[in-house]
TrEMBL record:
Role, per record: Essential subunit of the Sec protein translocation channel SecYEG. Clamps together the 2 halves of SecY. May contact the channel plug during translocation.
PROSITE patterns associated with the record: SECE_SEC61G
Encoding gene, per UniProt annotation: secE
The name this protein goes by in its record: Protein translocase subunit SecE
Keyword terms, alphabetized: Cell membrane, Membrane, Protein transport, Translocation, Transmembrane, Transmembrane helix, Transport
Organism this protein belongs to: Marinobacter adhaerens
InterPro entries the UniProt entry points to: SecE_bac (IPR005807), SecE_sf (IPR038379), Translocase_SecE/Sec61-g (IPR001901)
Molecular function GO labels: protein transmembrane transporter activity
């Protein structure tokens, strides 16, 4: 029974995605056509079209799956243990010092190789 419901909703998914594509196209063409109008009005129209297109896209199977993915990602981000400010500063300083040391080593090796090649070539 579940697969039949998914099939019937996915039958209209192509039509829904076509509507989303048309809304985006109307936004792009309309923005170009009404380029002489106020930027505020054009932005408000584009935001309204984007909201409608997003709503239509969320009615599809892929759109629902994407919404679920976003909800699960938000839950996972809340589980992350973020570093404290002192840890962040300490780690940043370590990375900057390491990069400087490695860059000096590479500069020294490059200078040595350039000096050897110049001496070899003459």
């Amino acid at each position: 029974m579940e697969s039949k419901a998914v099939q019937s909703s996915s039958r209209f998914d192509t039509l829904k995605w076509l509507v989303v594509f048309l809304l985006v196209a109307v936004g792009v063409v309309g923005n170009q056509y009404f380029s002489a109008e106020s930027l505020l009005y054009r932005v408000l129209a584009l935001v309204a079209l984007a909201i409608v297109a997003g709503f239509v896209a969320l009615q599809t199977v892929r759109g629902r799956r994407f919404a679920i993915l976003l909800k699960e990602a938000r839950v996972e981000i809340r589980k992350v243990v973020w570093p404290t400010r002192p840890e962040l500063v300490q780690t940043t300083v370590i990375v900057v010092v390491f990069v400087l040391v490695v860059s000096l080593i590479l500069w020294g090796m490059d200078s040595l190789i350039s000096w050897l090649v110049a001496g070899f070539i003459g």
